[in-house]
Every structure is written in C-alpha cells, then in structure tokens.
C-alpha cells in the first residue's frame, strides 16, 4: 500500500487476497517527490480484490521499473492491472507471462474507482496515458485489454474469438508473434488490422 509513493518493492511468491486493492501506489509531490516505481512482483497470486488487483497512478512524475512475471491475477471483482498516467515513463511496465482469469468475477461489468476516470468497463488490463507497456505471453480474455492515449507491444500473446482488445484513436497497439488459436484472418475474431495480417508487426483494434 503506497498512498504517497514508494520506490523499490520486491514481492516473491506472495498471495494477496480479498482487499480493495492488492497493490496500490499513487505518486506524491509533498513533502518530497516520490513515485511508486521499481516494483517487482514474481510468481504468486492476486485474487478477490474488490476494486483492482494492481492500481498505479503517476500523472505528473515519471515512473520506471514496474515488472510482473508469472503472476496470476484472477477472480477479482474489479480490474486486473490498472496503470494511469505514466506518460513520461523511461522504462515502461512489463507484464511477462501474467495470467488473467475470471476478473469482473461479480459480473458487475463497470466500476468507478473514484480517481477521476468515472465509470469504466472492468478490464484485465487498463492503461491511461502510458507511454509504453510490454505484454508477453499473456492470454487476452473476454475482459480484455484497453488502451487510452497509450502505446503497447503485445508479444506472443494468445487471442481467440472471445478476446477483447480495445484502443482509442490516440493509442498504438502492436501485436507480434500472436497465437490466434487457429484463426486464419484477424477479422474472423473481430480484430481489425490496420496493415496486412502478413506483417510481423500488426496493430490491432477491436471496437
């Protein structure tokens, strides 16, 4: 819990369960500048969180060194991972083999976290103003990933007909080496490509 920022936290094999937020970090400008960076989470599980499994907000200071590896984010009432305002980030968040499953477990569909974004659709991954985020070998589920004024690289991620991948007009999402579960054309999955599906780097959007 980092309500005024905290630089440098390492969590190995932890279970974070039945909280409002499993991991919560917001920058602080007083009494001194502090952001919730250098966060390293490996293995473990975050579940049963009522608002979000992970929430990091840093709208004015840059943040770096957020790394999640082999973490299971599942069975949360609200969002999976929520990143807000990392638009000066020199070292963007990395999600490496993060497992998303059964988030929005209460089937409410929407939530207002109370930090100025209003009512939003619950997502496995929500990004606002994130300069660059890298997602490797994760399953994009029906709760899906949403990007607003953000850039993302999805590498070797799994998508099928149920996947949700949404971006606004100011976002760029690049999908590389995707496992499309036997789908021969991106349009078959409701995924609209802005370039040829033969291109090794294919920006994707699902409305």
Task: Identify the notable features of this structure and list them briefly.
6-stranded parallel beta sheet, Right handed beta helix domain-containing protein, 0% helix, Pectin_lyase_fold/virulence, 207 residues, mainly beta, 9-stranded mixed beta sheet
How far the N terminus sits from the C terminus, by CA atoms, comes to: 35 Å
Fraction of helical residues? under 10%
Q: What structural class do you assign from the helix and strand content?
A: mainly beta
Q: What percentage of the residues does DSSP assign to strands (E)?
A: 35-45%
Total domain units: 1
Regions with little confidence, pLDDT below 50 for 5+ residues: 192-207
Number of E-state strands: 21
Overall mean confidence score, pLDDT:
82
Write the topology of this structure.
Layout: E1 9-12, E2 15-17, E3 21-26, E4 39-42, E5 45-47, E6 52-57, E7 66-69, E8 72-74, E9 79-84, E10 94-96, E11 99-101, E12 110-112, E13 119-121, E14 125-128, E15 133-136, E16 145-148, E17 151-155, E18 165-167, E19 172-176, E20 192-193, E21 201-205
Parallel strand pairs: 1-4, 2-5, 3-6, 4-7, 5-8, 6-9, 7-10, 8-11, 9-14, 10-15, 14-16, 15-17, 16-18, 17-19
Antiparallel strand pairs: 12-13, 19-21, 20-21
């Amino acid at each position: 819990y980092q309500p005024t920022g905290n630089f440098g936290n390492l969590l190995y094999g932890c279970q974070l369960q039945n909280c409002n937020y499993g991991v919560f970090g917001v920058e602080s400008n007083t009494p001194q500048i502090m952001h919730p960076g250098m966060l390293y989470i490996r293995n473990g599980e975050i579940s049963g969180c009522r608002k979000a499994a992970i929430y990091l907000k840093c709208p004015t200071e840059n943040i770096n060194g957020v790394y999640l590896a082999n973490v299971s984010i599942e069975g949360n009432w609200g969002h999976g991972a929520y990143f807000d305002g990392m638009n000066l980030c020199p070292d963007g968040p990395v999600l490496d083999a993060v497992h998303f499953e059964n988030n929005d477990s209460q089937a409410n569909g929407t939530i207002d976290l109370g930090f100025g974004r209003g009512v939003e659709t619950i997502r496995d991954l929500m990004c606002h103003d994130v300069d660059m985020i890298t997602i490797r070998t994760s399953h994009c589920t029906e709760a899906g990933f949403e990007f607003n004024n953000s850039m993302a690289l999805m590498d070797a991620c799994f998508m099928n007909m149920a996947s949700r991948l949404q971006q606004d007009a100011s976002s760029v999402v690049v999908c590389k080496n995707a496992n499309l579960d036997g789908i021969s054309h991106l349009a078959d999955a409701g995924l609209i490509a802005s370039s040829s599906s033969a291109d090794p780097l294919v920006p994707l959007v699902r409305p």
